[in-house]
Design goal:
The structure is a single chain. The protein is of the alpha+beta class. It has a single domain, classed as Beta Polymerase, domain 2, CATH 3.30.460. The protein has 6 helices and 5 strands, in the order αββαββααβαα. The chain has a 5-stranded mixed β-sheet with strand order 3-4-2-1-5. A hairpin with a 3-residue loop joins strand 3 and strand 4. The longest helix is centred in the first third of the chain and has 12 residues. The radius of gyration is 17 Å and the shape is globular. The N and C termini lie far apart (63 Å). 13% of the residues are buried.
């Protein structure tokens, strides 16, 4: 195998397809201050290499001066939404979403604030 082929295979392992990226935190609630950074959650589709090797869904956070981005495997999303994890429910109601795949439209199609309210009440201890 030539050096060029090895580099190509290594790039293929690192490549992922971004599904969507949503703003969360203070920018979502109009609580922005001059020193606020922009927090985002991004979900990606795993590539063939990740699926073939059987890697578990992964997460990674990248922190910058003006922007913090958390990257999550989209395979985790259904589990987190099913558990009514408020941090991830917020993604569905974000004011700013960059979509790169139609999957986000299917997720947020039937959602409303009433749905969010009922989901959060389900976490309330009785």
């Amino acid at each position: 195998m030539t050096l060029q082929k090895k580099k190509t295979k290594k790039k293929e392992r690192k490549m992922v397809n971004l599904a969507f990226q949503a703003v969360v935190g203070s920018h979502n609630y109009n609580l922005v201050t001059p020193t606020s950074d922009k927090d985002k959650k991004a979900f990606f589709f795993p590539n063939f290499y990740i699926l073939y090797k059987g890697f578990q869904p992964a997460s990674k956070a990248i922190t910058g001066e003006t922007e913090d981005i958390e990257y999550h495997d989209i395979r985790k999303l259904t589990h987190l939404l099913f558990k009514s994890n408020v941090n991830f429910l917020e993604v569905l109601f974000s004011v700013e979403v960059n979509t790169y795949h139609p999957v986000y439209g299917k997720l947020s199609y039937h959602l409303s604030l009433d749905f969010l309210y009922r989901s959060v009440l389900g976490m309330k201890a009785t």
